[in-house]
Amino acid sequence: MNVRCSGLLALVVASVLPVSVATAKARWWEGAVIYEIYPRSFQDSNGDGVGDLPGIISRLDYLKALGVDAIWLTPIYPSPQVDFGYDVADYTNIDPQFGTLKDFDRLVAEAKKRGIRVLMDMVLNHTSDKHAWFLESMSSKDNPKRDWYVWNSGRTGKDGKRLPPNNWQSLFGHSAWTPAGATSDLYYHFFYKQQPDLNWRNPAVEKAMFDAVRFWLDRGAAGYRFDAVDTLFEVTDLRDAKEGPGVNAYGDPAPDFTLQSKQPEVHDVLRRLRALADSYPGDRLFMGEIYSKDMAELASWYGAKNDELHLPMNMALLPLDVDAASFRKALEAGQTQLGGNVPLFVTDNHDQPRSWDRYGDKTNDTAIARAVATMLLGTRSTALLYYGQEIGMLTTAPTRVEDVKDPIGITGWPKEKGRDGERTPMQWDGSKNAGFTKGTPWLPVPSSAATVNVEAQRNEQDSLFTWYKKLITLRHTNAAVRDGLTTFLDRDAQHAVVWLRTVKSAAPVVFAVNMKAEAVTLTVAADVAQGRVKGLKPLAVSHEVLKSSTPDAISLPPFGVYIGQIQR
Ligand code: GLC
């Protein structure tokens, strides 16, 4: 069935005269494509089944070919790996599993040769329980590092048992308080009990962590992704949190984390961190992990005076169904409700099932993936990609609890299977271990790797990889696509998301994405007839059939995408 969407370009011409958005020279990360690497799973070079820095170096040419501007590495510091690196035991070294400081320096240098910057992940909220600071802190009440963590003597139960001071839960299940060490005190941990929270009310903690931040900037890192940055502070009176109704996957009363996160003091720390970033040359970038449904709150993480995070993550696309109205709304909010700041849109990361499965309908999966990629990369934004997203890697969760590696998958089985499914090895080719390792991979290579892999898609005209590459190339070569203002058209349409990118220096570019499993025709005849528009020059089309679209009507197949430059 064809749905007619008439008068498209009438709107275009009437509403949009070329506008200039950026007056100052854009910073490198505005409109950039940042590629998240989960180092354990990207490329193993020594056959131990775990990815490493030399492995990443050997794949830099691939990343250059894809066109990414920067890579963000999830934590590679020495760690017991309980939370696969998010439990840091030493902030100024490299875990031997991943390589050495020399390897890191070589990675930065080799990436630079290819025009790629390296961003690190900094875990500010907590350390590993094996970090020397915590070992000291737990050793006695009067150890100088005691106050580096959040200790409490708790309450005494009827039977004389030591109980937590309140009902606060860990995000990863059960009480957020665990007894430890030589005294009967308990320490606070928002995440695993092996991840004690640092006490950010102690200035010595801030100083030590800022030193760690400087360490990698001095070594050539282009910036950071700050992990769980909104959890640095908790309320001080330790009052009980609201809970319920119902229970979560861990069997706990449904938690409310309001008292344990997003406290105003975080903004003060971020302002001081931003000043640190700005004291370095070269536009260092500070991104932050923020989950927020409220755009006004998300806007606040840029700072009231634009003096906090450069880019708080915008996770608004993650929970959406493939539906024109919801995508348009979330994308438009990113353009209009963040105080003019560039949004950092995310569709995939190492904590969420992959977008292929979340958005896919099992019939049009590749077309849907192209449509989503177009919305991610075609609006004014900095875009985050997660390794394997560009080839449509699937989420492959473990099927037996005994195979689970991520501890939350063990605590929460079977309701919560953990995050192994989105962390499986990168699928480079169709060989036994998908070209990831010559050893035994730390997580099994999914059977889908036989067909879903880089080698199969790299030179394939219609592959998802090629589509990503086209979109990224457009970002780099077309001024309207890179810097242009984003204006959504036909805003009531149920079947398509249509928008225009305009910039003074180039002709406007129209993007049309069909969000339904049925064909749609966008009619522009009236404008052509009246001589207002000569037509559209296709810049990229997702389906063969689109190549034959006439200048006055664009026929979009199910989930088809048309990108064209307006000819006047
Ligand atoms: C962030 C990370 C996640 C980690 C947690 C604790 O949410 O993305 O992977 O488990 O912080 O550090």
Radius of gyration: 25 Å
Bound molecules: alpha-D-glucopyranose
Largest sheet: 8 strands, parallel, barrel
What is the CATH C-level name of the largest domain?
Alpha Beta
Give the N-to-C terminal Cα separation: 31 Å
Q: Can you identify the CATH superfamily of the largest domain?
A: Glycosidases
Kindly give the count of domains: 3
**Mean of pLDDT:** 93
What is the helix content? 25-40%
Lateral strand order in the biggest sheet: 2-3-4-10-13-14-15-16
Structural class: alpha/beta
Helix count, DSSP H or I runs of 4 or more residues: 16
Strand content bin: 15-25%
The CATH topology annotation of the largest domain reads as TIM Barrel
Structure characterization notes:
- The protein has 568 residues and is of the alpha/beta class.
- It folds into 3 domains: 2-10 and 485-567, Golgi alpha-mannosidase II (Immunoglobulin-like, Sandwich), CATH 2.60.40.1180; 28-128 and 202-469, Alpha-Beta Barrel (TIM Barrel), CATH 3.20.20; 132-188, Oligo-1,6-glucosidase, Domain 2 (Oligo-1,6-glucosidase, domain 2, Alpha-Beta Complex), CATH 3.90.400.
- It contains 16 helices and 23 strands.
- It has helices spanning 8-15, 53-58, 60-66, 101-113, 132-139, 203-218, 265-278, 295-300, 324-336, 355-359, 365-378, 407-411, 454-458, 464-477, 479-483, 525-529, and strands at residues 3-5, 33-37, 70-73, 117-123, 151-152, 155-156, 162-163, 177-179, 186-188, 223-227, 243-247, 253-255, 285-288, 311-314, 344-346, 382-386, 485-489, 496-503, 506-514, 520-523, 535-541, 553-556, 561-567.
- The strands form 6 sheets. An 8-stranded parallel barrel has the order 2-3-4-10-13-14-15-16. A 5-stranded antiparallel sheet has the order 17-18-19-23-21, sandwiched between helices.
- β8 and β9 (186-188) form a beta hairpin.
- The protein is globular, with a radius of gyration of 25 Å.
- The two termini are 31 Å apart.
- Alpha-D-glucopyranose is lined by residues 83, 86, 123, 191, 227-228, 289, 350-351.
